[in-house]
Amino acid sequence: MDEFSSSPLYKDNADWKDVTPIYPSKNEEVAVKIAVTEDFIDAFAYFRAVLIKNEKSPRVMALLEDCIRLNPANYTVWQYRRVCLTELGWDLKKEMRYLDDIIQESSKNYQVWHHRRFIVELMGESAVSYELRFCSEVIREEEKNYHAWQHRQWVVRTFKVPLDDELTFALKMLLIDSRNNSAYNYRYFMLTLHDKTEDKDRINIEINLAKEFIQNIPNNESAWNYLTGLLITNGITSDSNVVSFVEDLYETTPEDKRSPFLLAFIADMMLENIENQTAAEESAERAKKLYKTLQSIDPVRVNYYKHQSLLAQTMLLKSQTKVAAK
C-alpha cells in the first residue's frame, strides 16, 4: 500500500487551487459541535467540493485516503471511493493491499469490511484463497473478531468453498481455544450450509468432538451449547450415548465440582422427559432439585432458574392431565 499522504493542508496545495473548498456552515457547526483537527476540516471541505463536482480522479482517490485516515467509519467517503474506483478502472489488487492495512489498524470497522466485500465481488473466484488466508490472519490475532468471521462466512457461501477445508480451519481454532464460541458457530454454520445437520454420521462426529471438549473442560459453556445445538432437532435425550455420557460425568464428578452447564443440561433432559411423559414425576422432582442447586452456584441466573423450576411443575401438571384424559 502507498503511504498515507503527508502533504500540507489542501488549501495550501497548488495542485488543488482549482477547487473551492466547502466548509461547514455556522448552522451546521452549531447543530453538531464536534472537536476536530484542522487537517480534518480541511480534507472534508475538499471532499465536499469534489462530491458536488462529481470529480473522479487519482487525486480524489488520494484525498479519500486522507478522509478515511481521519474518519474510517464515514460511509459517504467509502461509497464515493467505490464509485471512483469503478469508473477509473482502479487496480483492485492494490485496493486490497490498502484494505489489508486499514483493517490491521481498524479491524472492527464495519465500513471497511463492507468495502472489502465489494472489491471481492468485483474480483470473483480469484480472490477466494487470498480472502480465506487473510481472514485466518485476522482471526488468529483476535479470535472472536465478529467482522472477520462474518466476512469468511460470506466468502464460503458466495463462492461455495468445500466443507472439509473449513471444518479443519474451525477445528484448528478450537484447538487453540476450545471456548471460542465463534469457532463453534462457524462450524455449525458450515454444517447447515452443506445440509449436514441431518447427516447422522456427520452429526455423530460432531457430537463426539463436543463430548471430548466437555470432558477436558466441563465448564466450557460453548461446547455445551454446541452439543445442544447438534441435538435440538430430535431432542437432547434422543441420543442414548449422550445421555450416558452426561450421567456418567455427573456421577464421577464430586458434587462441589459439578459444572452449572452440566446441571442445566440434565435439567433440560428432565424437562424433555416430562414433555415425552417418560417418568414424568421423577423427572420433575429431579429438575426442581437441579434448579435449586443452580440458584446457589450460579446466582447471576437465579431468576431464570426459578422460572424453569416453575416450568417443570407446570409441565408435570399438564402431563398428568393428559394421562388422566386418556
How would you portray this structure in words?
The protein is an all-alpha fold and 326 residues long. Among the domains are: 162-234, no CATH class; 252-325. It is 71% helix and 0% strand. The protein has helices spanning 26-31, 38-53, 58-70, 75-88, 92-105, 110-123, 128-141, 146-158, 163-176, 181-193, 200-216, 221-231, 240-252, 260-275, 280-297, 302-325. Helix 15 runs antiparallel to helix 16 (302-325). The model is unreliable at 1-5 (pLDDT under 50).
Distinctive features:
disordered N terminus, mainly alpha, elongated, 0% strand, 16 helices, 326 residues
Largest sheet: none
Q: What is the number of beta strands?
A: 0
pLDDT < 50 runs, ≥5 residues: 1-5
* Overall pLDDT metric: 93
Class of secondary structure makeup: mainly alpha
Radius of gyration: 28 Å
The portion of residues forming beta strands comes to: under 5%
C-alpha termini separation: 76 Å
Helix-residue proportion: over 70%
Q: Which outline best applies?
A: elongated
Number of helices: 16
How do the SSEs run, as a string of H and E? HHHHHHHHHHHHHHHH
Task: Note the topology.
Elements: H1 26-31, H2 38-53, H3 58-70, H4 75-88, H5 92-105, H6 110-123, H7 128-141, H8 146-158, H9 163-176, H10 181-193, H11 200-216, H12 221-231, H13 240-252, H14 260-275, H15 280-297, H16 302-325
Structure, briefly:
The protein has 326 residues and is mainly alpha-helical.
